[in-house]
Design goal:
This protein has 7 helices and 6 strands; from the N terminus they run E-E-H-H-H-E-H-E-H-E-H-E-H. It is α/β, with parallel strands linked by helices and 209 residues long. It folds into 2 domains: 152 residues, Ribosomal protein L4/L1 (Ribosomal Protein L4, Chain: A), CATH 3.40.1370.10; 50 residues, no CATH class. The longest helix has 17 residues. This is Large ribosomal subunit protein uL4.
């Protein structure tokens, strides 16, 4: 698949790159995508929720009324969950929500997500660039030139670039990551996927195994 390479001004450089068919043109596996996104979202959960149960509530342990003859249900403790101020019955406890998936399935999910973006023509290949200093206005100019200032965008770098990363931090709708940090969720969550030229080799190398 041939894709034109643009510069930071949004203009065609006259060069084209060939996106690997093994990564950007496979038969998408929707279930693999679902499982990988499910794992990503589950792993974001802290699982630190906790409610006090009757054994953890401070209160009297005396039997509050006699067992029989009251005409109402028996009650043995004021700390019971049926009384106001009592413990919570079957309340949430700390737990680990993380899910494990094998590497081949995660690799298939990422390739499926990239293929979906390629089919929708939502992938832009940008030549490598850098800023002299981290400035928001420099990154704003790039977004305007690519006409994506009002869209969610994901910039994928081939190597760490602190100036570009810091310049993008004020934009909630834009994110800058390394090619090794690419995930199915981040690919699908972005309206436009901006791949820098230097990132392509790493992406194809990681996903062609």
């Amino acid at each position: 698949m041939k894709v034109a390479v643009l510069d930071i001004n949004g203009k065609d450089t006259g060069r084209k790159v060939d996106l690997s068919a093994h990564v950007f043109a496979i038969e998408p596996n929707n279930h693999a995508v679902y499982l990988d996104v499910k794992q990503y979202l589950a792993n974001q959960r802290q699982g630190t929720h906790k409610a006090k149960e009757r054994a953890e509530i401070s209160g009297s342990t005396r039997k509050i009324k006699k067992q029989k003859g009251t005409g109402t249900a028996r009650a043995g403790s004021i700390k019971s969950g049926v009384f106001r101020g009592g413990g919570r019955m079957f309340g949430p406890r700390p737990r680990n929500y993380s899910i494990k998936l094998n590497k081949n399935l995660k690799r298939l999910a990422r390739k499926s997500a990239l293929t979906m973006k390629a089919n929708d023509k939502d992938i832009v290949v940008l030549e490598d660039f850098n800023f002299e200093a981290p400035k928001t206005k420099n990154f704003t100019a790039v977004l305007k030139a690519l006409d994506i200032q009002n869209k969610k965008s994901l910039f994928v770098l081939g190597a760490s670039n602190n100036n570009v990363y810091l310049s993008s931090r004020n934009f909630k709708g834009s994110e800058v990551i390394m090619n090794s940090e690419l995930s199915t969720y981040k690919i699908l969550n972005a309206n436009k996927l901006i791949l820098l030229e230097s990132s392509l080799e790493g992406i194809e190398s990681n996903l062609s195994k």
